[in-house]
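Whether sequence alone determines local backbone shape is best considered at the level of individual chains. The sequence in question and its structure tokens are set out directly beneath this paragraph.

***
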Amino acid sequence: MNRNLALEFVRVTEAGAIAAARLMGRGSEKDADQAAVTSMRKAFNKLDIDGTIVIGEGERDEAPMLFIGEKVGNENNKLKIDIAVDPLEGTTTTAKGGSNALSVLAAAPKGNMLRAPDTYMDKIAVGPKAAGVIDLDASPKDNINAVAKKLEKDVEEVTVIILDRDRHKNLIEDVRKTGARIRLILDGDVSGAISTAIEESGIDILMGIGAAPEGVIAASALKTFGGELQGRLKFRNDEERKRAKEMGFLKDLDKKLLMEDLVKGDQSMFSATGVTNGEMLKGVRFVSKGAVTNSLVTRSLTGTMRFIETHHIL
């Protein structure tokens, strides 16, 4: 996977972001997501790869485009790539005109990316300066204290980012008891996980339960930064567990998943384009006869991270 391909992926997330941003604040999550999906699918057609969607909008019977198993690009190309895509990470926040919505994708050579089932995942993530000291099985207090020590901060200076969900009531209380700061977000735990690796964001740790596919996508980005994400699948019912078992990608469905379990090797790439303004990226800004986008693209082989501002003539 050469470096030029990383820049081609940016064009795909830019297309998704611009399409979704047109519907910001319009109140329809479905319309915004569909716009992003349609535009990204068209952009994939222009790539000279033999790509397979391994994490996408759902199964073939649930999604007309970017479904799991769908082939994208040029099947005659010898470069076989697995792709994880979330055309609009933050559908609710986009529909409400909120912050931190992204159009994202991750890619790796065939067989190197966990095909995470469509269920939840308990996650903890940190940036490179705190990598190596977290443990998903430890208490919030122990993890926060360990990160504070590694970052040479007081606990009261540590900021934990958590999805604002009822299921996190106990987690939020446990974090508050430590004295640490909390940033609650409506959507976007991919952005939340990556923000731990960007010092200017002010975020030190991500904790809580979010979508499993987004955990794989975030791990792909954090691998370039030298950060760390640990996760464990959290099934909502027996049907989800049965389906995951039938997929056969994990022998132990209750295993604590480490970085190498989520994304193998050093050939992964990640691209994200801001849809709405956030801590990590600015959202799409429409100007006379065009738009301005801000994107992040990473390549784990070289540890390269590029922040790209693009001016589009539409």
